[in-house]
Write a structure and sequence with these properties.
Number of domains: 2
Number of strands: 12
Shape: globular
CATH architecture of the largest domain: 3-Layer(aba) Sandwich
């Protein structure tokens, strides 16, 4: 069974911007046990609205009898700094003021999030990670971390993500934040500020997460008589309502901004030079119908990371193929491990 933990960092934490958090905590989930050599660690990085319980959203990859079986592996995943699933975020109490941060929570970059992860890693005493795996925003975190700490990670599995967030991706994120800004409650310091705007933001996001073929397959109307109340319309409303029940607009805003900040080449002489620092044996997985992180972005990574492997997943689900096509992802990872064994 997954075990849930809290890591508390009681020192001042300086962000890339120069802003400071007086302290923070990370909520994290583990399953399985460390072996005697402490070399069976799998670290998972979650996506934008994910949580630390990887069995919730990647249950076909992690679990008994699955690719990563807890009897063989010690698996770790932490909710990101700024998150809303137990880690310090905008709804947390600022120990200096005794009040919730709300809009005063400082803006984060992916490098800040990764720095917090690494403090947790050190606290748990993990000097070597067998495999670091992440998808989407989590893929960005994994890549940044593999560059920051090249000797820690033996293998990197990077799914449906990129080396630098694209103008297309930033435009989608800003459009979603525009929707949040249009909500009059966004100007208030309350837990539910911007919640209606968040619903619209999520509906916008779905258009980048999915694909024309996916909507055509799942939301097409039967017959030819309908003139209103379309399935596709109600689906968009449903997706917005569903997220609003488990998330908040502050964290959505914060993490979408962190995603925008993603550029491994910043202050490192560009993307190509930054990728050259990676020592982990790397697998880059792309989804052929992904509109948000198109396959060209994974091809670029494969081109510039020495001795890396590229795998293509076929899906009608677009970017969300990384959540849906778990059988194909499992096969790609198994092949990656097998080929490494053959080489040795």
């Amino acid at each position: 069974m997954p075990e849930h933990h809290i890591f508390k960092y009681k020192n001042e934490f300086v962000l890339e911007s120069g802003a400071k958090l007086p302290e923070f905590q990370l909520s994290y989930t583990t399953i399985g046990r460390l072996n005697s050599n402490r070399d069976n660690v799998i670290w998972v990085c979650h996506a934008l609205t994910g949580n630390s319980d990887f069995s919730d959203w990647w249950g076909d990859i992690f679990g008994e009898g699955k690719l990563y079986d807890p009897k063989d592996w010690f698996i770790v995943c932490a909710n990101v700094l700024g998150g809303c699933y137990g880690s310090t975020g905008p709804l947390s109490v600022n120990p200096v003021t005794g009040k919730a941060y709300f809009h005063d929570f400082p803006q984060l970059t992916n490098r800040d999030i990764v720095a917090a992860f690494d403090l947790l890693r050190q606290n748990v005493g993990l000097e070597e990670i067998h495999t670091l795996i992440g998808a989407s925003l989590g893929g960005q975190h994994a890549l940044e971390w593999a560059i920051q700490k090249p000797t820690v990670f033996q293998r990197l599995i990077h799914v449906a993500s990129n080396a630098r967030h694209s103008p297309w991706g930033i435009a989608f994120n800003e459009t979603q934040r525009m929707a949040i800004r249009q909500d009059p409650t966004w100007a208030t310091d309350t837990e539910k500020a911007g919640l209606e705007g968040l619903k619209t933001a999520r509906a916008i996001a779905m258009l980048s997460y999915r694909h024309y073929a996916c909507y055509n397959q799942s939301q097409q109307e039967p017959g030819n008589s309908i003139t209103d109340d379309y399935r596709a319309a109600s689906y968009q409303v449903y997706q917005g309502e569903k997220l609003a029940k488990r998330f908040n607009a502050y964290t959505y805003w914060l993490l979408s901004k962190a995603m925008d900040s993603h550029n491994v080449g910043r202050d490192r002489g560009g993307v190509q030079k930054a990728l050259a620092h990676i020592q982990a044996k790397s697998l880059f997985i792309g989804v052929d119908s992904d509109l948000l992180f198109p396959i060209e972005e994974q091809e670029l990574l494969h081109e510039h990371v020495p001795d890396s492997t590229l795998a293509l997943i076929h899906s009608n689900h677009g970017h969300d193929g990384f959540l849906v096509e778990t059988s194909q992802i499992t096969r790609a990872i198994e092949k990656f491990y097998k080929e490494e064994t053959v080489e040795v």
